[in-house]
Design brief:
single chain, alpha/beta, Rossmann fold, seven-stranded mixed sheet
């Protein structure tokens, strides 16, 4: 199971810089927004959220954006205030990424993937340690043991999201939080022209017990391990409602962001498991 937490980490460094510029093309013109030596935590002109940018020895002057004229830089996105509001106690992060930290009391659940580890190195020069080596839909922990489960840019990579949701539900304590950031259809080249995945499609993947080896690849952006599904906040929320109606879940939506305030290329859905 792929564990990418940022869809654009699959892109080349040049393509990533183009994606960042698309988020907010407003140039940095003041000294306040100027990218200074070493490490700065500023509102980056190419992204809708703040990032910490650690540059190499190249000099970026006059407040210029590192998306032009610099081939090597590393960056980390800042933590997410909404996640800190809801993800209290101790929990799990599914497919954590070193360049996209949340700063929560969580353990990273992931499989070792050479490509994804290299993508993290390319972004920030390090790899998030794996605490529990497991797939998102089969985690060897006791039921009801987690206060929260958080995932960012992971669900679209799962051939069988329903199975993962049921596993996360098993692990959550009553009243526990499931926190999901999912890319917008426009976040990754090729997805915006694809139709949204229907609830019926998700349920069919579950009923047929699809996994990476059996899920059809026709139309899958990126092939095995790529974007099996495309969703909006409304369509993914409809899936949760359908699972609630089937008594497979008992999740109440308690918060959402139409555009996430973490990186700005996804949406956020926050659910609370029924208390008891």
């Amino acid at each position: 199971m792929p564990v990418s937490t940022s869809s654009f980490s699959r892109l080349s460094p040049r393509s990533r810089r183009k994606q960042l510029r698309r988020q907010d093309p407003t140039p940095a013109t003041s000294a306040k927004n100027r990218v200074l030596p070493n490490v700065s935590r500023k509102s980056h002109p190419g992204c809708s959220s703040e990032v910490a940018i650690k540059r190499n020895s190249s000099t970026i002057a006059n407040g210029s954006c590192p998306s032009e004229g610099v081939d090597q830089f590393t960056m980390k996105f800042i933590e997410h205030a909404l996640a800190h509001r809801w993800c209290l106690g101790e929990g799990l992060e599914i497919g954590a990424a070193a360049h996209n930290p949340f700063g929560l009391r969580s353990r990273n659940v992931a499989l070792r993937e050479a490509f994804y580890e290299q993508a993290q190195i390319d972004m920030c020069g390090e790899v998030a340690p794996i605490d529990i080596e497991a797939s998102a839909d089969e985690i060897p922990l006791d039921g009801g043991s987690q206060d929260f489960i958080i995932s960012s840019h992971v669900v679209e990579h799962l051939p069988n999201p329903v199975r993962a949701f049921l596993e996360w539900n098993r692990l959550l304590r009553p009243g526990g939080i499931c926190f999901i950031i999912h890319p917008l259809p426009s976040a990754f080249p090729g997805d915006e022209s694809r139709p949204l995945t229907t609830t019926e499609h998700y349920l069919e993947d579950f009923d047929k017990a699809h996994d990476r080896s059996t899920h059809p690849l026709e139309g899958v952006n990126g092939g095995v391990g790529g974007h099996y599904h495309v969703a909006s906040a409304e369509s993914l929320d409809q899936l949760v409602h359908a699972l609630n109606a089937r008594a497979l879940l008992a999740w109440e939506r308690v918060d959402m962001e139409a555009v996430d305030t973490k990186v700005g290329n996804g949406f956020t859905l926050v659910y609370r498991k029924a208390p008891g």
